[in-house]
Design goal:
The chain is α+β, with helices and mostly antiparallel strands. It has a domain of 124 residues: Aminopeptidase (3-Layer(aba) Sandwich). Helices cover 32% and strands 33% of the residues. The chain is built from 4 helices and 7 strands, in the order βααβββαβαββ. A 7-stranded mixed β-sheet has the order 1-2-3-4-5-7-6, sandwiched between helices. The longest helix has 20 residues. The structure holds coenzyme A. The site of coenzyme A has 21 residues, from strand 4, helix 3, strand 5 and helix 4.
């Protein structure tokens, strides 16, 4: 196994709609890799490259509409990680946003990229006046440790919330983070 690369070798970007469209193949490959490796992130093992690409084109539309901030992490190989900040549009929740699709390609994990993406997403949420963040994740996934380590509060797990890519049921664990100064 190669020695882990330093996080300083990683560039974090925020993509506009055109850059998102251009990045669709790379983003679809990250999603395919995560699903193939058993992550419960909205897709099943039988989903195809076309499904993943369609998903990212919809994200590009959300970026164009201002509802989604899309983050990517890039190393010498290209885009290897991504995360999204969804700016909740409800008039009574102007202070809230959701974190979604935190994905790092399996060949680039355990280098601090997931943490760096989360820290950047939280910083941008603050800049946008969104100081209450919410997310959910597979109860058995490695992301659960990441969110706890970053100071997110675990609310609880809803059993049978979703399916794993192989069809097995899995619970979803819900977290929030209050970004207001203590
Ligand atoms: C969850 C996920 C995004 C984490 O990405 P990542 O880039 O590996 O995250 P990090 O490197 O910041 O942290 C992962 C682990 O590597 C460790 N690590 C970080 N830098 C390291 C380094 N240089 N050397 C060794 N270990 C390191 C961290 O301490 C952490 O340890 P943990 O397993 O005890 O939590 C990634 O595993 C993934 O994409 N999973 C599949 C998709 C998924 O489930 N996403 C969540 C949807 S809500």
């Amino acid at each position: 196994m190669n020695a882990p690369a330093a996080t300083s070798d990683i560039a974090l970007d925020i993509l506009d709609a055109a850059a998102t469209e251009a990045a669709v193949p790379a983003l679809a490959e990250i999603l395919r890799d995560c699903v193939t490796n058993g992550a419960s992130v909205g897709f099943m093992g039988w989903n195809t490259a076309a499904d993943y690409e369609r998903f990212w084109r919809d994200v590009a539309a959300g970026v164009a509409g201002g509802q989604i901030v899309l983050f990517t992490a890039r190393n010498a190989d290209g885009i290897v990680g991504t995360a999204q900040l969804h700016l909740v549009g409800k008039p009574n929740q102007p202070h809230r946003a959701e974190i979604a699709k935190v994905l790092v390609h399996s060949r680039a994990r355990r280098q601090g990229i997931g943490e760096a993406l989360m820290r950047r997403a939280e910083a941008v949420a603050r800049e946008k006046g969104r100081d209450l963040l919410v997310l959910d994740t597979d109860e058995n996934g490695t992301a659960r440790r990441l969110y706890s380590r970053l100071g997110w509060t675990e609310v609880g797990t809803i059993p049978r919330y979703a399916l794993m890519p192989d069809g097995a049921a899995c619970g979803s664990t819900f977290f929030y983070k209050d970004l207001r100064p203590a």
